[in-house]
Amino acid sequence: MSTEVNPTILIIEDHKDIAELVVDYMQSKGFEVDYAADGITGLHLAVTNKYDAIVLDLMLPGIDGLEVCQKLRIDARNDTPIIMLTARDTLADKIAGLETGADDYLVKPFAIQELEARLRSMIRRHSGDVARELLQIADLTLDTSTLTVTRNNQNLTLTPIGLKILTVLMRASPSVVSRRDLERRVWGHVLPDSDTLRSHLYNLRKIIDKPFDQPLLQTIQGSGYKMTDNSHG
Questions:
Q1: Class of the 134-232 domain?
Q2: Residue 174, preceding bond cis, omega within 30 degrees?
Q3: Does 81 sit behind a cis peptide bond, omega within 30 degrees of 0 on the bond before it?
Q4: I want to staple 60 with a disulfide (CB 3.0 to 4.6 A). Which of 39, 71, 104, 179 is the partner?
Q5: What is the per-residue pLDDT across 138-191, written as a single tens digit (0 to 9) for each?
Q6: What is the DSSP letter of 75?
Q7: How far apart are CA 229 and CA 151, in angstroms?
């Protein structure tokens, strides 16, 4: 695939030394790289150009990384894979980043080789989408060709990772998918830290289950997760 040979990425990072390190390294590895030093410029580049992935710093002048991510996902309906960089390592910060639509999260200081590996993994997974099918459990439907999710005739907006998790679980239903298997199917071989899947599942439940009478996403203690319609036994 062309994205594997010469991927194009956008770096949005206000720390000059980090930005230069990332840009120089990624270019040396065959990436085409655009760069922005603030959120407003980064957002403009992201919506006016096509990128295979975006590296987005959390703390930015102008508008911060959370707002950039949110505007891309909700306002621009942009599903380009995003990895968020931050000096913050609390679960609340991770949940906030993932909830606005980031696909992955890397805490500073980070190894540049790990950033490259995560970028390549995200790009590979994103370009590998998707067989066309209509998945349904109870009143929840997912059209994998249009990435449209509805429940009780209401359109639901999920992050790209939330969509991938839901697709895996709905395809496997009513079988249980182990935590490790779910992580591999969503992120490939470069797995996220232990909080990331839990944060995405929390956000997913909040959208597909909390507003409705019947929960469909279940945690099976010690085994994994499954989607099931309990009203049918």
A1: mainly alpha
A2: yes
A3: no
A4: 39
A5: 999 998 777 889 999 899 988 888 988 999 999 888 899 999 889 888 887 677
A6: I
A7: 13
